[in-house]
Amino acid sequence: MQKKEQPIPGAARYSLAALVSALVLSGCAVAPAPLSEGARRATLGDDRQAMFGAQPALSGPVSLQEAMARALKYNLDYRVKLMEEALAQRQLDLSHLDMLPKLAAGAGFTARSRELASSSQNVATGTQSLVPSVSTEKQQHTADLSLSWNVLDFGVSYYNAQQQSDRVLILQQRKRKVTQQLMLQVREAWWQAVGAQQLQGRIDALLKEAELGLADARQVEQQKLRSPLETLQYRRQLLDVIRQMGIVRNTLAQAKPRLAAIMNLPTGADFQVAVPAGMPVPSLGLALEKMEEMALLNRPELGEARYVERIGVLETRKAVAKLLPGLELSVGERYDSNKFLVNNSWSDAGLRVSWNLLNLFNAGTIKRSAQAQLDLAKAQRLALNMAVLTQVHVAYLDLQGRSRQFALEKELNEVEQSIFEQNRNASASGAQGRLPAILSDANAVFSSLRLYQSYGDLQNAYGQMGASMGLDPLPESAASDELAVLTDAFQGAETQWQGRVGGGSR
Questions:
Q1: What pLDDT, on a 0 to 100 scale, did the predictor assign at position 74?
Q2: HSE toward the beta carbon, residue 14, CA cutoff 13 A
Q3: Which of 236, 328, 354, 487 could form a disulfide with 69 if both were Cys (CB 3.0 to 4.6 A apart)?
Q4: pTM of this prediction?
Q5: For the segment 21-38, what is each residue's pLDDT rounded down to a tens digit?
C-alpha cells in the first residue's frame, strides 16, 4: 500500500504563521514622513532657476507683440497646457499598442520537498491497481513563448484608439482657447502698463506741487494772513487732491507687475513698455452675419464639441462591437525540463470562440445608453452654438459702445487739457493763486487716466471681438519658437487679423 505523507508538525505551522504575520504587520507600519524645512529650502534655488533662468533679459521697451511672444513662450500656466497635450499624445501612442497581438514570454522554476507520486484505483473493486509512481521531477524548469490575438479586442481597441486621437484634438482646441485668453490678458495688462507709464511722471509732479501748496497753506494759517475758514477750505482741497492722486498712483503701480507676471518675468523687474505713437481706433469691416459664420467655423469650443460628438458615435459602434462573439487565435513554443517527458519542447496552436450570451439580453439597454450619450453631445453642441452667437452679438455691441465712449473721453480730455493750460498760464503770470492750477491739473490727470482706460477697454473689446469669432492671435505654425521669430509672427498675425476682422484703424 502507498505510504501516507506525514503532516507538517504544529511548531512548523506556527512558525510559518508567525513569519507571515510579521511581514504583514511590518508592511502596515509605514508612517507619514513630512519634508523638513531644509529639504524644502534646498529646492528653492532650482525652482527659481527653472522658472526664470531659461529666458533672455529684456533689451529695451516691451512692445505688445513682444509681450505676447514672451507670454506664449514662458508663461507657466501655458506650459502646463502644452504638457497636457504632450501627455495625451503619448497616451494615443499607447492605445495603438493595444491593437497589436499579445506576445507573452514566461519562465519558471518549481521545487518540491517530496516526490509527486500517485497510484490508480480500480473503479469497480476500489482496490489499488498500480503501484505508486512518479512522472514529475522534484525540481524542474519551464519556459514558454506565446502569441495570441483576439479579434474582438482588436475591434474595441481600434475604436478606443480613434477616441483617444479625438481627445488629442480636443486638447489642441483647448490649447487654442487658452492661447486666446492668454493674449487677451496680455493685451489688457499691456495697455494698463502704457497708461501707468505715461501718467506716472505727471502724477508725481502734481503731488509735489500739491505738497508745496499745502506747506504754503500751513504757513498762511500760522501767520493768520487769511480767515481761518478760507485757509481750512484751501487745505482741504489740497489734501483731497493728494489723497486721490495717491490712490491713482497705487493703482497704476500694480499695472507693470501684472504684465510681468503674465510674461513670467522675475518679480520686481523694472522695465519700460513701448508707448505707441497714437491711439488709432480699430474699425469693423465685416457684416454681422459673416462674423457669426466665422465664429461657428472657428471657435475652439465648437471644435471640441464636434470631436466629443464624434467620440459619442464611436462609443455607439464600440458598444455594438462588444455584443459580438470573440475569436482568439494563439500559437506558442513550450519547454519543460522534466526528464520523464518524451518531448521536452513542443509547439502548439489554438482557436477559441467565446460569446457572452448575457449581452444579448442587455443589447437594447447598451445601445440605448450609447445613443443617449450621442444625443446629449449633439444637444450640447447646439446649445453651445447659441451661446457662441450670443457672444458674437455682445462683443459687437460692446465694441461699438467702447468706440463711442473713447470718442467722448478723447474730446473731454482735450477740453480738460486746455483748461489746465489756461490755469497754468494764469498762475504763472500771477493773475490767480496756485490752487486753481493744481485743481485743473488734477482734473486733467484724471481725464488722461480715463482716456487711457477707455482706449485700453476699446482694445480689449477689439481683442474680444476676434476671440468671439475664434480667430487665433498667432498663425498655426511659426518658423521657430525663438522669441524674435514669435514677436515678428505676432506682428504679422495682427496685420492679417485686422484684415479679416475690419478695415484697419482710423
A1: 80
A2: 3
A3: 487
A4: 0.73
A5: 666 656 566 677 787 777
Q: What is the pLDDT of residue 475?
A: 62
- The grid coordinates of residue 413 equal 480730455
505 and 498 Cβ atoms separated by less than 8 Å: yes
Contact call for residues 303 and 309 (beta carbons, < 8 A):
no
Collapsing DSSP to helix, strand or coil, 240 comes out as: helix
Instruction: Specify whether the CB–CB gap between 486 and 477 falls below 8 A.
Output: no
Q: Give the whole-angstrom CA distance, residue 452 versus residue 163.
A: 48
Poorest-pLDDT segment among 3-17, 154-168, 363-377, 451-465: 3-17
User: Mind giving me the DSSP string for 54-104?
Assistant: TSPPP-SPBPHHHHHHHHHHH-HHHHHHHHHHHHHHHHHHHHHHTTSPEEE
Residue 144 near residue 14 (C-beta atoms within 8 A): no
**Grid coordinates representing 192?**
494698463
Kind plus residue range of the DSSP H or E element containing 191: helix 151-223
pLDDT, tens digit (0-9, with 9 covering 90-100), for 366-375: 778 878 888 8
**Reduced 3-state DSSP string for 9-53:** CHHHHHHHHHHHHHHHHHHCCCCCCCCCHHHHHHCHHHHHHHHHC
Residues composing the chain = 506
- Pair 186, 460: CB distance under 8 Å: no
User: 402, 458 in Cβ contact below 8 A?
Assistant: yes
Q: Which three cell numbers stand for residue 196?
A: 501707468
Give kind and range of the element (H or E) at residue 351. strand 345-354
Q: Sort strands 117-118 and 102-111 into parallel, antiparallel or unpaired.
A: unpaired
Q: What is the DSSP string of 278-325?
A: --PPB---S-HHHHHHHHHHH-HHHHHHHHHHHHHHHHHHHHHHTTSP
DSSP letter at 143 equals: E
pLDDT for residue 335 is more than 90? yes
What Å distances lie between residue 471 and 66, 176, 201, 242, CA to CA?
19, 9, 37, 45
Nearest to 309 by CA among 367, 366, 379: 379
